[in-house]
Amino acid sequence: MSESRDSVIVLVNRQPVTLPPQSTLDRLLEHLGLQSTRVALAVNGSVITRARWDDIALTDGDTVDIVRAVSGGSQEGPVLDPLRIADREFSSRIFLGTGRFPSPEILRHSLILSGTQLVTVSIRALGLDGQTTSGGLLDELDLQHYSLLPNTAGATTVRQAVFMAQLAREATGTNWIKLEVIGDERSLWPDPTGTVEACQILVREGFVVLPYTSLDLVTALRLEDVGAAAVMPMAAMIGSGRGVEDAGSIRRIVERVKCPVVVDAGIGTPSDATIAMEQGAAACLINTAISRARDPERMALAMRYAVEAGRLAFLAGRVPRLDHAVPSSPLDGVVSPLLQSRDQAAISSGRS
Fold this sequence. Notes:
The strands form 5 sheets. The chain has a 5-stranded mixed β-sheet, sandwiched between helices. Strands 10-9-8-17-16 form a 5-stranded parallel β-sheet. The protein has 10 helices and 17 strands. The protein is globular and about 70 Å long. The two termini are 50 Å apart. A hairpin with a 4-residue loop joins strand 12 and strand 13. It has 2 domains: 8-68, Roll (Ubiquitin-like (UB roll)); 71-316, TIM Barrel, CATH 3.20.20. By secondary structure, the chain is of the alpha/beta class.
């Protein structure tokens, strides 16, 4: 006889938590001993506004994400699998671009749900006073909770890229730069020679350079040689959403360079991010796949889980690929249908 349920079990940040029936989100925070300030909540992938926390009753199997924005992207508790780039350590392996989001509110929620600690901003969107000249989405974002990665997007020459980086350092106060030198304006394919030259100049000027590059192994090695803090090979063309078009090349770069490899551009779905991470990438930088999704907030959460799953899969090590089948169950003790029929015939013969 089953007993009536006097509790519900929900998954909070993927950990089971037992609560009294009809517990609300406010009750959950109280149960966990968490203050409601600087916390964002999502239930089953949907962001719940603070005004509704006392109205949402949790039921068995609900998934709750609780995210706290903390200064400088720091994190309470030990980081079990940290990512170190130059002088910074990250617990999150998903970096986010901030362009083309439908609204500042959706951008804020997406950043929180993704768990990111590093966000890119376009140099073109910044004036010399550090404010966005177009009244863009970052105006209302409290950037003290994220590390900034200014971007030289749109630069087509070494001189232009270096100039944009210098302006970015003055405007934002960070010496980190995502370097782009575009060689073909139609495909936005990076210029390998120009990227290496600009990277060398910026490293000499004290920048922490994360250059966007193609899947060419030699270019990645040259960028590491001149001091790149990480290399950022493309999954596919910028904004194309075509996914990982050459996983083997990503894996070869990971195997050869010693600095972190961040897959950048072209990711379209969470499975693309997982594939990239399974090759050994240290992180993924994602923008369009989230900002242009039908539900950016839900997609940000999906990408977060996908990056984490890919990282765990890489660390676990995949099963070898074989050209033949290998049974997953032991063959010893398998009953043969032929023997069964013979035994049955003998029994029938003995009875006749």
